[in-house]
Structure formats: C-alpha cells, structure tokens
Prior knowledge:
Number of helices: 2
Distance between the termini: 52 Å
CATH architecture: 2-Layer Sandwich
Oligomer: single chain
Strand order of the largest sheet: 2-1-6
Number of strands: 6
Amino acid sequence: MHELSIAQSVVEVATRHAAGRPVRVVELRVGHLRQVVPASLEFAWELLTEGSPLDGARLEIEVVPARVACRDCEAESVIDGFPLACGRCGALDVEVVAGEELLVSELELEEELAMIGDER
C-alpha cells in the first residue's frame, strides 16, 4: 500500500510548513496516473495524524484527470488509463500534460486570536 508512504510524506510537508500552527485542512492534488486509492490515502492519513499536531486536520484530495497531447494530430484528450493514446486519432506518440501530479497545494491554518486588553 503505497498510500501509507504518500500520507507520511504529506504529514511531513504539512508539519514543516505549518511551523507549529494548528492545521484545519490539507489540500492535495493527485494525478490519475499515480494510481492512488483516495479511500486508502484518507485511512492512512487518519492513522498517521492521530495524536499528532495534525490530529483533526481534514485531508481534501483532488484527483486530476490524465490528459495527453498527441504529437501526430496535436489534439489534447483526457484518458482513463493505459495504453496512453490519443483520443482523436489513436496514435501512441503522446505527451502526458496532466495526471502525474502529487502535491500539497494548500494548507488552511487556524489563526490564533490574541486577546489584547481583555479584562474579563
């Protein structure tokens, strides 16, 4: 299950960039060609963040469809899987232009409110 190692990397990135601030949401872009099972990744996230500074942070996964550009007819098409072929002419001479992403795109952090002068 490579989702566990992916989740571990996401935890490390989020922890480093949060720099001790509480995290509400971690947004992750995952390309279709990465063959990640979102439910497995979410399960691994829950396991790894439980009891950690990221405990309670929500993981939002955006699956990016795979797109190829044909070198023969120059069409761009969305594909579902292998083989990587042009959706218009069927040629196999294509370049992947989307669908291989794996990146933390955004962190939503909690802002701590300073209660200056509050005399309650």
